[in-house]
Amino acid sequence: MFDKSKIVHSNVVAEATKQALIRRGVTLEDIAEIVYELQIPYNEGLEMSHCLESVKGVLRKRELQHAILVGIELDELAEQGKLSQPLQQIVESDEGLFGVDETIALGSVFTYGSIAVTTFGHLDKNKTGIINELDTKKGRGVHTFLDDLVASVAASAAARIAHRSRDLEESGETFEDVLPGDTMPETKIKGAKI
Ligand code: MG
């Protein structure tokens, strides 16, 4: 049963998530580059800074934080040979039919709707930027979960921009009119913290 006395503060989880990505060689800028590439064809005036802000925005969601923490932990345990067999060998070899890595990552993008789901599928297949680097780093560490998790963060951040873009369009604006810090209208809500 859930024990309220053992509750972990959101800031601790958010920081642990960011540190886990950095420890595994993934910067927020790496993810923002994928977002930029995905969204620039549809968004006049979009800049890298808007994409970076969107990546930071989606990383505030617990769905993504929890998925990242679980996945990276499993990659690291597999790297240290600490999983039990046959799971150790399945994760270590990135067995094609395993699929739990994709399932966890896919489950975390639902917050951002169907655009995030289809974008995740696109990234899973085309492996853009750092996703490709992680995928081809085989033999140098285990990244079975990490490549999918990066795709889920990028897909969510891209979907978030797509939705924001419609709001801008309706008010006769483009990203050119938006300061990077203004890509997160949800943080303007009184009492909301960044
Ligand atoms: Mg994978």
Cofactors, ions and other ligands in the entry: magnesium ion
User: CATH homologous superfamily name?
Assistant: PgpA-like
CATH level 3 topology: YutG-like
Strand content: under 5%
Individual helix count: 9
Amount of helix? 55-70%
Structure description:
Helix 1 (10-23) packs across helix 4 (62-79) and helix 7 crosses helix 9 (146-170). By secondary structure, this protein is mainly alpha-helical. It has helices at 10-23, 28-39, 48-58, 62-79, 87-92, 100-107, 113-126, 130-135, 146-170. It is globular, with a radius of gyration of 17 Å. The chain has a single domain (18-173), classed as PgpA-like (YutG-like). Bound molecules: magnesium ion.
Please outline the helices and strands.
Elements: H1 10-23, H2 28-39, H3 48-58, H4 62-79, H5 87-92, H6 100-107, H7 113-126, H8 130-135, H9 146-170
Helix pairs in contact: 1-4, 2-3, 2-9, 3-9, 4-6, 4-9, 6-9, 7-9
The structure holds magnesium ion.
